[in-house]
Every structure is written in C-alpha cells, then in structure tokens.
Amino acid sequence: MPANKLIIYKLATKQVESIDSVKNYKYPETADWLAYQRTPKNDSALYIRSCDGSAPVVIPNVSDYNFAKKENILYYITTEKSADNQTISQLVTFTPEKGSSVIHEGKGVFKQVAFTEKGDQLAFLYCPDKDSTATGFSLYLSEKNQPARLVAARENSNIPSGWVISEHAAITFSKNGERVYFGTSPEPLQKDTTILPENRPNVQVWKWDEGVQYTVQNVNKSKDLNRSYKAVYNRAKDQIVQLATENIPEVITPEEDASPWAILTTSKPYDTQRMWRGKNKYDIYVINLDNGEKQQIKEDVFHQIQLSPQGKFAYWYNIADSSWYTYNLAEKKRIPLNYTHNLLCLG
After folding, report:
1. DSSP state, residue 21
2. Model pLDDT for residues 292-329, shown as the tens digit of each residue
3. Long-range contacts of residues 115-118, Cβ cutoff 8 Å, at least 24 apart
4. In angstroms, rounded to a whole number, what is the distance separating the alpha carbons of residues 250 and 256?
5. Contacts of 112 (CB under 8 A, 6+ apart)
6. Which H or E run contains 182?
7. Does residue 346 register a pLDDT over 70?
8. The pTM of the whole model exceeds 0.85
9. CA-to-CA distance for 145 and 254, rounded, in angstroms?
10. How far is 345 from 43, CA to CA, in rounded Å?
11. Residues near 59 by Cβ (< 8 Å), separated by ≥ 6?
C-alpha cells in the first residue's frame, strides 16, 4: 500500500506542495503552521514548519505532540540520554517566536497531556517510576509556559482512601481555565504472578440480584477495568473535589463557567429492574464544584436530565405529564413550563 501524502495548497499562488510518507499531522485552528511525523519505523522525529515552508524545525525522538486549539503553541514529549546514560523523558512546549521550553522532565512516564484552548495552561499526568504506572500517576499544571507544579496526588485528603489518579481518564479544562477535570479510581488489583496459570481457578460467579448479567460483565470487562470517576482541581482555591463515585458515577459539567454547579446521575439502584422493564430509572443530584456539597433533587425517575450551557439550570422532559421542567440550581426551585415544544435552555 502506498504511503500517505500531505498536500498543501497555497490559495494566494495556487501552488501545490506534496510531503511524502506522512504518518500523522496536526495543526491549530488559528495559526498557519503545522507539525507532522513520517512513516519509517526508525523515524520518530517531529517536523515543525510554517505552511509556506519557512522556519522548519526537526525534533528527534518524539512520542506524542499536539497544538493548543486556538493559540500558536504546541507540546511534545521526547527522550534523551543523561550524562550517566539514563533515558530522560521531557515534556516541552514550542512556539515559533520563543522556541522550546522544558515544562517537566524525569525518568518516568507522561500521559494525558492537555492545553487550555488559549494555550496558557498545560496539565498532564506524570509517574516517576515506569514500573508503577498503575498506581503512581500525579497531576501537574504548568501556567504561562513555566515549569509545572504538582497539584494532585493520591495522598491528597480529598481523594478517597485507597484510590489513585487514573491514567485512563482524559484531562479537560473548564472554558475559563479555572477548573481542571481529571479521573480517579480505586487502586487496581495486582495479579499474583506466583501462581501458575494451570493452578488458577477459572470460574464465573454471578447472583440473581446483580444489576448487570454476567454475559454483559464479560463483554464490558476491559472497559470496567479502566473505568474512572471524575474529580476537579479548582485553581483559585488550590483544592480538589471528588465529584463522581462508584455509587453515583455519571457527571454533567457546564459548558460555560457562570455557575459552580454540576449534575450527578446514577441508575445503579434500578439496574436489576432494567432487565425486565427494558429501560432505566435514575436518581439525580446537584453538586457544588467548589466544595463538593451534594443534594438529591430527583429520585426514581425515568427521564434523563440536562444542564444548561451556563450551568444555572437543569432541565428535563417528563413523559408522565408531557411537560418540560427546569430547576434553578442556585435557588433549588423547580419550574414547570407546561408545553411540549422543543426547549432551548441558555441560562
């Protein structure tokens, strides 16, 4: 199969440029430059250049990279040898104006690197020991392209005892960058390698009142092993709040940053009933993103709930009376709307 080509068409001059053997490429929304890697197996270099072909830069040994969505900055992860011949990993940012800046380095592993849209903050997970990645990741934050600082570790008192920061959950920022969302999970069980496979029993145990049938459990096994529960780091208060839990696992956070509220939902109390009903019921809670205070607002309901973009209202459609409802999260007040047309909730 022929290798992929990257084609650059210059609108002003109508010239066409072709770059052969491209493995992957990325570019920001608001800048005229790009980065790409090529297909030879022994070529892990990152090629950075302007779209007009000027100012080319080549970075060797790059394992991951990406741009901020709306700013002229990218990060990349590279490795180099130290004076004592140890392999050192570096997380580095790059801009055409300032070149490269080392954000963090060490002998460990980086994962889940994420910019804010404007590129003024960079968050990531780092584990200093390559053999302890199942339990050893911590959350770091770099602001204004400065060296990163530790903001969350498993020892934090607001992370449940026996839980770790999950390497499987993506890191995201709130729109204004004041909140950093990440995942936590119970510490994974470690397989006992002293037992030979032929001496390990291979049985499945299931009882009638479990909410998920064993066949479905088998299908979802890898997904469940990697399951994480959303937490948030609040920059202004330098504080972590655990949002989701094993009993209330689903979180809806606001698109904007106008309010401190989020929605929690769970179907777990009704999962067994779903097997014969064919549809789920839910319990619904409101949680304060700043302090973790939680209040149940709906119980044993069939309808799902949504959050307005600014996070000031929750809203839902109730099939039983064919009506829309909103809920003012600050005032803790339910408001019946009493019409069946499509609802656009902006608050």
Report:
1. S
2. 999 999 999 888 899 998 899 999 988 888 888 999 99
3. 115/66, 115/67, 115/68, 115/69, 115/71, 115/73, 115/75, 115/173, 116/68, 116/173, 116/177, 117/68, 117/69, 117/70, 117/71, 117/173, 117/175, 118/68, 118/70, 118/71, 118/177
4. 19
5. 124, 125, 167, 169, 170, 171, 182
6. strand 179-186
7. no
8. yes
9. 27
10. 50
11. 45, 46, 48, 76, 78, 92, 94, 100
In a 3-state reduction of DSSP, which class is residue 199? helix
Strand 121-127 relative to strand 15-19, pairing? unpaired
Q: What is the distance between the alpha carbons of residues 260 and 293, in angstroms, rounded to a whole number?
A: 11
| Among 19-33, 93-107, 173-187, the least confident range | 19-33
Instruction: State the Cα–Cα distance between residues 155 and 142, nearest whole angstrom.
Output: 21
CB-based contacts of 34, cutoff 8 Å, min separation 6: 25, 26, 27, 48, 49, 51
**Which amino acid does the sequence have at 5?**
K
DSSP 8-state assignment for residue 54: -
